[in-house]
Design a protein that fits this description.
The structure is a homotrimer. Chain A is of the alpha+beta class. In chain A, 22% of the residues lie in helices and 32% in strands. In chain A, the strands form four sheets. Chain A has a seven-stranded antiparallel β-sheet, with helices on one face. In chain A, strands 2-3-4-9 form a four-stranded antiparallel β-sheet, with no helix packed on it. Chain A has a four-stranded antiparallel β-sheet with strand order 5-6-7-8, with no helix packed on it. In chain A, a hairpin with a 5-residue loop joins strand 3 and strand 4. The longest helix of chain A has 31 residues. The interface between A and B is medium-sized, with 23 and 28 residues.
């Protein structure tokens, strides 16, 4: 197992279960997500105990999940509650996974349900906050989730992969600092007195600021386990304090990345951006989402081809340079969590 | 081996070998089908003894199958009969499979040729009978052939999978009876005084009967090995005797299903409908074929996803409810035939 | 290993590396091809020692290959020469493969670099010679490279696979002669007083000769290891000496085939035609390339389906007829080379 199980992953968004049940594999488990009788989110094994059909091909009727093959009605605990013409008391149950809707996402705990604690879901101060706007999307990428963590914790790749949007040589030229605070890994880079790249020129204009002046730019990547990477990014007109400059001279936002393993070599990648400026402007949200979607699509081929190369040369050690410190430290946190699960009582994983 | 070999399967239709040889895998064997010198159907291994090219890429010339690579001429016994510039006497033979054209289909016996007996091909009273019309099609579905047998022997799925055409709640609500007569399994259901669903409303109109009155509806599924399911279906205006009502107040037909394993997890599914009304109306045949094709296409995703689930959870026992009795009994017949082949003399399988 | 490694294969054409680096797998090795600082061709493992990204996704900057992920700069010996903000002295090297540009192709030696000798690249008198014109293309085919050698050393297949262009019954009817001269295998066939097939009718017209007269036709296939097949082909008006007739009464050319194994069951197939008539007519070059491309595309399905059949029936012996002598002898040469590599000192393969 290359991922921890006793932790919360983003499984899907509310939009995705609006029209009916959603089948999605998370951490190797095939799950079905839907809303139960109190509109609460439910996650079950995507397997009908009658004949093994995927429950996600069915429909939700008054909060019960009705199998689309022969009409078995599944309850939100994973127990069959009814079936036409049948007594269902002895039917075997399917596994129910703890699931919680919070911050505009649906979170699932693929491990031991007894340990699931909704308080462990990260606090996201910008989520569903009127002063902030959020827009994002979902990509499926055929790579180990840790390659995406590496990608996001070492932004020097922007200079090469995203050279036409957010990349610029100064990212490469400016050293970064990495520190670990408990299970959090923070990599930060401050570039002062540089020209803003195209994406930030746009953001400056959207903030009513000039786009042709030198700026101080920052990138502060926060990894928290299992695989969340939130990146504080922004520019301020040069000489006003950079990250600490007053709002009137800066444009800033948070790049949001929730990386959910599907298998050992594929992920559901929930990406987005939270911004505090012009939060009531949905056209701007769409425009940023479009731009960000284009940028993150540039990573896809690189990550998938990197994954193929690593499978082809499994014995080669990769380098761990200073720029890789964020990813390296994040993997240490991940490894520690996995090791802790392995040594925990057998009951921990069903 | 999950299928019997010493039995007749439908391999293809005459149409499919009209323009030239047809390559098709049956029960794991790659075969080529074509017409020999007396127009008789021939089934051989699809392997040229010269360099291993598929013979099905060749053409038929005066009843000989000419390899499309270097012109080897194959005879209908699997022996090379000629090749330009060569003496072919010592060429190794390829396997010939017993093949028979009957009832508008081409049947193949993938097992021991010595045991092949054309009398074992099922009698189909409706086939090539002027009082009946037949129309059908062929689907390739990635599932174990027994999942399709299950599907056809438990029609409660119509309520869920085919809710817009032939499904209706009464199917679920009416118990079925299953009985076994030798190797035949029969599951029947009689629903009296119900509203006809859309497909049967159409059939009533085609028979010059009102489509807005209550009817008695029946479904009588006949499984015979290895994997043929013929279903007597129909409706009669309510109160005239149902299945036994006179022709003047009913619409009825036979749903025809020949399921031929390609591999352990894929099938060639020959489906169709034989009807005794308006047999000389080819437009009606086409209309029914179109409707039936749409209905059977609805099963495909369910069956393929069910198969994937069963491969993913190989150790889970499925339930065997009363509605599943037809499929369960059919599997017992199949298992008995497979066991008999295993204990037969080794010569039985080449 | 089913192919020799200490030999030269055609890897790509200069066109393919004009716009940037090219990733291509040769003999199971993932390689990147590009031009170094002196415009010389370079072949390296397609693996960045930093994080394993394919170097072929990068770009060439002043003869250095810059990784497209984080900017590592790779030198043409496989050693990292620079990386922004890093000391690279201790970085592990990647493998460099000897590569040479010659005769309009880029050749690579996938085996022991110490044994690579550019003098072993075949002399091609027609290449880059003003009296000759060359046009060709590249196909990817999913078959063992030896099946393509067989194909080209036994042209009786033209009668069947290419019946509408270059095939004609006389090929089948005329015996061929095969001889071995060292590592070269030569199969020749001379057909006198026959009607020219469509392709050669066109060539006769292009030479200002009548296309409706009998001709003497020849095919002389030259195999040289590892997998080059050059075929002298042509027609002369009948009775003027055939192959030895004066240029004024004949049309002739050389069919060029360089077959490069990608894996054990797939190839990069570089095909083309060199002609000595109207060499300065690029429209004619295009026309011939188009026609030849259509002809060679006819082989693709046959070879791929033959390969699938051989994988399905791995234990069947193929026949070795007189027409197969060219392929059989070529395989003996290949086997001898592979055996020699196996018994060579271990240093021979890295």
């Amino acid at each position: 197992m290359t991922f921890p199980l006793n932790t919360w992953y983003v499984a899907c968004t509310p939009d995705e279960i609006q029209a009916g049940p959603l089948g999605r594999q998370v951490c190797g488990e095939r799950m079905v997500f839907y809303r139960g009788p109190e509109q609460q989110v439910v996650a079950l094994e995507d397997f009908c105990p009658h004949r093994g059909a995927p429950l996600s091909l069915g429909r939700v009727c008054e909060g019960k999940l009705v199998c689309g093959y022969h009409g078995l009605e599944m309850g939100c605990e994973g127990k069959t509650v009814a079936m036409p013409g049948q007594r269902v008391r002895g039917f075997p149950a399917v596994r129910a996974f703890p699931a919680v809707e919070r911050h505009g996402f649906i979170w699932v705990w693929p491990g031991d349900p007894a340990q699931a604690n909704a308080d462990l879901i990260p606090a996201l101060h910008w989520a569903q906050n009127d002063e902030w706007a959020y827009g994002g999307g979902l990509y499926h990428i055929a790579c180990d989730y840790r390659l995406m963590v590496d990608n996001l914790m070492d932004l020097t790749h922007e200079t090469y992969v995203h050279s036409t949007s957010i990349g610029q040589p100064e990212i490469d030229e400016t050293p970064c600092q990495t520190r670990v605070e408990g299970d959090e890994v923070i990599t930060s880079r401050f570039m002062n007195g540089i020209k803003p790249p195209p994406f930030w020129q746009m953001a400056l204009r959207m903030n009513g600021l000039p786009d042709d002046q030198l700026v101080d730019r920052w990138q502060i990547c926060h990894f928290t386990p299992p695989s969340h990477v939130l990146i504080e990014v922004g520019v301020a007109l040069a000489g006003h304090g950079g990250y600490d400059a007053p709002d009137s001279v800066k444009a800033s936002s948070i790049v949001v990345d929730f990386i959910t393993p599907e298998t050992a070599t594929s992920i559901h990648y929930f990406w987005g951006m939270a911004r505090r400026f012009k939060p009531q402007d949905p056209a701007l949200t769409d425009q940023i989402r479009q731009g960000q979607g284009n940028i993150f699509a540039e990573d896809q081929e690189m990550l998938e081809r990197q994954q193929q190369n690593l499978l082809r040369w499994p014995d080669r050690q990769l380098l761990m340079l200073n720029i890789d410190a964020g990813g390296v430290q994040a993997r240490r946190v991940i490894d520690r969590l996995i090791a802790a699960e392995r040594t925990a009582p057998a009951a921990a994983t069903v």
